[in-house]
Amino acid sequence: MKEKKKIIDNYLENELPLEKQEPSIIHRSIRYSVLNGGKRLRPILTMMVAELLEEDYKKVLPAAAGIELIHTFSLVHDDLPCMDNDDYRRGQLTNHKVFGEAMAVLTGDALLVMGLDFVCRNAKVEEIKMDSVVAVLQNILQMLGTQKMLGGQVDDISWHNKEGNGSFIESIYIRKTSALLCAAIKTGALLLDASPEQVVALEKYGEKIGLAFQITDDLLDLQEDNKIDDKPTYPEIFGIKEAEKAAFKYCTEAKETISLFGEKASIFNELADFVIKRKK
Ligand code: GRG
Asked: Which of 21, 29, 32, 145 is disulfide-compatible with 17, CB 3.0–4.6 A?
């Protein structure tokens, strides 16, 4: 995973517009929010799928990097005062704290369109079919839409009822967090012609690690600020012990969904463990 993170970091460093390119402010802002130590989990997953299918990860690199840009867009917008109103992200001031709100909105917009452009660039990679790239684009757009990430965020910011039920919270997590992880995984699978059975298994894996990931994220947030805000999260409603149990359950289920790949999928099992054991 460390090697793959380095490859993605280098690719982004080289392919993003330089700070001095006009209008300079937006390119400084983009680089500020992208090149700052993200875990790169989503592009790593896209590359892992390529290797699982016994292909070279280089064949999916532009699209993988594009998904990281789209992820960064969602973080920049999520941090805005009108959404989560966060001051820090990845250990540094959030984008709007440094560049102002208007520029943060535009930075998010730029990252979204640039991310989709990077995905299109994958059509230029040898042996990749144009039809596959179109299928990938359509899948990403569906995963970002009102039935998935955007809709999950809508419910996340509008729901303040502490008495909420588990299946509703899980439905929010599946949409706001699992959807983009599924898109990252399916991007590798579609570009490299995985079988329908493999695609279904990998998507299910994405959904389960997304749930485990978001519940772990909530647990880490709780440890960090030790504050309960008006937006209910899984551990705040069900308690820390239950949340830990749920994260473990989803991690186990994720591993079960990819058992059809046998030993070849062992790194996917390791990643599922990492998702619940991570400290940031
Ligand atoms: C999709 C059109 C469209 C709009 C976006 C703002 C928004 C609507 C959605 C936000 C969704 C969101 C921020 C979900 C949380 C996902 C999550 C757990 C992020 C943290 O991911 P990490 O830990 O972050 O992988 P790093 O910093 O490592 O990249």
From this structure: 21
Q: Which ligand 1 atom is nearest residue 83's CA?
A: 6
Distance 257 CA to ligand 1 centre (A): 24
Residue ranges around ligand 1 (CB below 6 Å): 38-39, 41, 74-75, 77-78, 90, 144, 149-150, 153, 176-177, 214, 217
Q: Read off the pTM.
A: 0.96
Return the H-helix or E-strand segment holding 89.
Answer: strand 88-89
Among residues 237, 236, 244, 248, the alpha carbon closest in space to that of 209 is found at: 248
| H or E stretch covering 92 | strand 92-93
Please choose from 40, 83, 177 the residue to mutate so as to test ligand 1's pocket, defined by most ligand atoms within 8 A of CB: 177
Rounded to 5 degrees, φ, ψ at 108 are: -60, -50
Helix axes 179-191, 196-225, angle to 10 degrees: 150
H-helix or E-strand containing 88? Answer: strand 88-89
Q: How far is CA 212 from CA 10, 186, 246, in A?
A: 29, 19, 7
Contact 42, 102 (CB under 8 A): no
The CA–CA distances, whole Å, from 262 to 93, 177, 256 equal 43, 26, 10
Length of the chain: 280
Ligand 1 pocket test, pick from 5, 39, 75 with the greatest ligand atom count within 8 Å of Cβ, gives 75
pLDDT tens digits for range 158-217: 876 655 678 889 999 999 999 999 999 999 999 999 999 999 999 999 999 999 999 999
Tokens 């699992």 — which residue?
178
- C-beta of residue 258 within 8 angstroms of C-beta of residue 268: yes
d(CA 204, ligand 1 centre) in Å: 19
